[in-house]
Specification:
Strand order of the largest sheet: 1-7-6-5-4-3-2
Distance between the termini: 64 Å
Shape: elongated
Number of strands: 7
Strand content: 25-35%
Order of helices and strands: HEHEEEEHEEHH
Length: about 170
């Protein structure tokens, strides 16, 4: 039972907000104003450190969805290794969201649960979109040339596989 209580959140798909509140303690507040806050927090049971970022989101009046015209506070927790903690505390290592949040982190979601979010999918998605645009452009150029013989199609496909497109 004790080992279950000391389980790292990195192996969980979801973490309840109640569990986070029970186990996290603030090590140092880094920045705080009326709209956002950054702090280094520590899991009291595992000793793991997190960069805690919270921000106030103001819903526009008349916007669709629940809470229109109200305010919500969102929380995100980026796991930190020892070097990150020391770098942020003593070496002015940058930590601002989203520029420096390049690995999976916990963010609060519906029904009081925190879920893991991996921001790297956006980079892969952008690469895939660029590849798709390039492919569409090359195909349009091939069609514009008007030679759709079997040999021309074969050459075109071989060029695509090589990646040179010339």
């Amino acid at each position: 039972m004790m080992s279950e209580e000391k389980r790292s959140w990195s192996g969980s798909r979801q973490v309840s907000s109640e569990e986070l509140q029970e186990r996290l303690e603030t090590v140092r507040t880094l920045q705080e104003n009326e709209l956002e806050m950054y702090e280094i927090a520590k899991d009291k049971l595992t000793g793991e450190h997190y960069l805690h970022y919270s921000y106030l989101h103001r819903n526009l009046a008349g916007a669709p969805g629940a809470g229109a015209g109200g305010e919500e506070v969102f929380h995100q927790l980026l796991p930190l290794d020892s070097d990150d903690v020391l770098g942020i505390l003593f070496s002015e290592q940058p930590y601002v969201y989203p520029q420096y949040w390049k690995r999976a982190f916990l963010r609060n979601g519906p029904e009081g649960q925190y879920v893991w979010f991996d921001p790297t999918y956006a980079d892969a998605e952008a690469e895939n979109e660029a590849f798709g645009r390039d492919l569409a452009s090359r195909l349009a150029e091939f069609k514009r040339q008007g030679n759709v013989s079997e040999e021309a199609v074969k050459r075109f496909l071989e060029e695509l596989e090589k990646g040179n497109g010339e």
